Amino acid sequence: MEVNVDNCLEAVTKEIQIKCEKKVNEPETAKKDYLPESVAEDIQLKSEEKVNEIESVKKEYQSESLAEKIQITSEEKDSQVGLEEIKDQTQSATKEDPFAYLDRDDFTSEKYKIEIRNLPKHYGIAEFKKLINIKLELNCSKVKTPNRNGKWLYICFRSEEDKNTALGILNGYNWKNTKLDASNAKAVPDPLVKKRNEQFDDCPDVKKIKLDNAGAEQQMISAVTPLYNISYDEQLIQKTNSIKNVLMDYSRRLKRIKCGQGILNWLKKQQDENNGLPCKLLEIQSLKDDSEKCIGYRNKCEFTIGMDVENKEPVVGFRVGAYNQGKTSVAPIDNISNVPQRMKDVVKCFQDLVRASKFPVFDPENYTGHWRQLTVRLSLKTEQLMLICVVHTENMEESALNSLKQLILSYFTEGAGAVCKVDSLYFQKAKKRAAGEGNSFPLELLHGQGYIVEEVKGLKLRISPESFFQINTAASEILFDAAKDLASINSQTTVLDVCCGSGTIGLSIAKDCAQVIGVEIQEEAVNMAKLNATENGITNAIFFAGKAEEVMNKREFQNPENANDVVAIVDPPRAGLHNKAILLLRRMTHLKRLVYMSCNPKGAMQNFLSLSMAESKTKQGAPFVPVKAVPVDMFPQTPHCELIVYFERL
């Protein structure tokens, strides 16, 4: 977008003239106090720096008539406002220092970083962390790996002293018959500043075309819902083809590993019977027969609080792009197709609060400001609503923090926000994490109950702020039915619900099986699962908290009452199940069938291969091989698709 500096200067002049008219009756001495000649000279100099390629504008800005108008102003800061507008419109052609963040007082792991090279050919990150933190007690804050099993990695510390101690110990240290090479590592540049500087490298004499609000919103819509302008039938075709590619990749990779001749023979037979695929691919399941449920389906969204591109006005919405892409601005969600209208209305209402408050919006570049994120959970069936207001509290006085909490509480209970009818209102602090701190900070309930109730498959389930629950409630019922049908569950079946969350899957099929035994790493989610079972009158489900690879060693998993018919349903996070848990499932000789549900099939590939590898010293138990697979579209308007794979022992 070409900047019209003439219009900009005209606006500045008009604003100054208006201010002058208000001051016309003030004593003449008040005007002299502001040193008008120096102000004019300062403005002339800054104007030349900002718009030096537009000669006509420079002449106009240096002209006597404009200088006289500016001299009349009674406040130097008024003219500076005009200069800031010009600066914003034309953008400075001066490169920034991408390493300036290192000079700030706040902590960053980039300040105290060392590089480790000459690593062993075979090693694990977990092994290396044990070496650093347990055996050598080096007190590192972070281990960074450029790539999986790379030839070098980085270790970060919290002080210069810790870093130097580690250098002295690790340089030349013999680990796994390999002498490590440790040296100081260069800090990485701030990706946001780096991106801004790249424009000058590419086109040093041309100003960057500035994105307006409409363009930013379109970018965001295309990123959040890339398939929004494609017919739903075409979306389903694309997703089916994507799943086919995943299954074909499984076949290719299985051939390259040590899987044994028996598995290769099985694979060839399967491919001959299934048009090159390793198993039968069933028709994609979706809500296409109820098109209204294909839009506005999300029951949870995390909205960023930031500034819009054009006017630098607070907006509650989604990021236009990632920080490492050089983008921090936020665009509104009015036209996002997968966000329900009530959620949009709530966001707008919260945005009004942010704009009216005296508290600034969080700036991710400088780590200043306070308003940071709004998480919304909404049941489309019960219409219960939960809000989690996340505020950056670094350098925030306790009195200001309490004032902000009270502002939020009053707004949603007595003020304009009461129209939102919030059932559960939470407040959460956010700040830079110190070494050893978890991924989140404690939640504080400001108002209402500590959960909302969701309905699925005839069950009423409590959903807490941190509960995992399928993002699309209506489609989740299709997902659970598909998993149950693939597993051939009956009244004699024991179901091992691995990564059970708050018990949604296991409880939805409990009435159709003999027993459900669940495991989940989050204790709070397990407590919720137990409570959900009690409130729904389910007595044949038990749940355990802990890591799956540890809990599944318990007698309940290794020797269930109905050991003749046991099936595992695995629904892990996007990264997949820990390899130790996969190996433990293989060792369960009474486990004959396994259903793997993945919202990220490519990320689950290593799990699929580990299940199917030939039996060995490390992989005990007969391999599992895929028999059937069914895609389930949980995410209309996006390229993502859930995949359920049904495995049996070979």
TrEMBL record:
Catalytically driven reaction(s): uridine(54) in tRNA + S-adenosyl-L-methionine = 5-methyluridine(54) in tRNA + S-adenosyl-L-homocysteine + H(+)
Residues annotated as the enzyme's active site: C599
SUPFAM superfamilies: S-adenosyl-L-methionine-dependent methyltransferases (SSF53335)
Enzyme nomenclature, EC number: 2.1.1.35
Name of the top EC class for this enzyme: transferase
Binding of S-adenosyl-L-methionine, residues: Q470, E520, D571
GO molecular function terms attached to this record: RNA binding; tRNA (uracil(54)-C5)-methyltransferase activity, S-adenosyl methionine-dependent
GO biological process terms, semicolon-separated: methylation; RNA processing
InterPro entries tied to this protein: MeTrfase_TrmA_AS, SAM-dependent_MTases_sf, TRM2_met, U5_MeTrfase_fam
Keywords: Methyltransferase, S-adenosyl-L-methionine, Transferase
Keyword S-adenosyl-L-methionine: yes
Protein's UniProt keywords contain NAD: no
Similarity field: Belongs to the class I-like SAM-binding methyltransferase superfamily. RNA M5U methyltransferase family.
Name of the protein: tRNA (uracil(54)-C(5))-methyltransferase
